[in-house]
Amino acid sequence: MIIGYARVSKDDQNLNRQIDQLTAYGAEKIIQEKFTGTRQKRPGIIQLFQTIWAHDVVVVESISRLGRNTLDILNLITAAPKTN
User: Which segments constitute the Resolvase/invertase-type recombinase catalytic domain (predicted)?
Assistant: First the structure.
């Protein structure tokens, strides 16, 4: 399954561009959230890790949607629970 993840930092920001791109890519499910990227423990990321299974593909519109810098993203992936 292709699972998309879309995030913006503030409530007044819009997710439509990301959702459109993820849909066009073929995402079968899109997890959305409006939450700062400075925190690793975000509700949408937790939902993403609870949703994915082995062999699923996670897509984002931009790598910056996962974290603010490379170290944040590596820490996020390293700390991710093992998938089913």
Answer: 1-84
